[in-house]
Amino acid sequence: MGNARAMEKALRSLPCDSKPVRLVELGAGDGNFLLQVARRLGDGWRGTQATLVDLQNLVTSDTFDGFSELGWDIKVSGIDVFAWCREPVAEGVDLVMANLFIHHFQSQDLQELLRLIKQRCSLLVAVEPRRSPLSLAFSKLVRLIGCNAVTRHDAPASVRAGFFGNELSNLWAGNGDWATEEQRAGLFSHLFVARKREFVEAVRPS
Asked: What is the pTM of this model?
């Protein structure tokens, strides 16, 4: 789907003087998505401190080694995302990111999750399924590449639960201290960026 490329492009558009060094990925799974992104970002992001939040700790030693080679400091937090959002913290988080994660939440829970994220960071970048006839049509063809029954069910279900237009911006809407952007990322993904207003030139995907 090209989600790692879309995430890299969004993060690269951050100016050097406000580049996030304290990063959290929600629903991080085995950490391989963030590792792909980190490899794409290259040496300019050495020193990044990243926390992988997921109920299950699936990160292998090979993945930790991959981050270490890139100069990233990785921590795994095996905790529910809502519990993480409500944890008292000594210092803030620059960036929260998510890949194919927030579409799993129903409307009320999604609104609460976005509200809590807003209190924990200065920037959110999420790449999610894009709800469109094209995406739905292709999701029904995954059987042709040998996907199992679970994937054949989950692929169209994820598209139907995805986002379009400014739906996430409308859910995020606040008192004007945040700027949001939404757009298509590749053929099948939806990119959502929310940043505090003081990030004047922070994230401008093209």
From this structure: 0.84
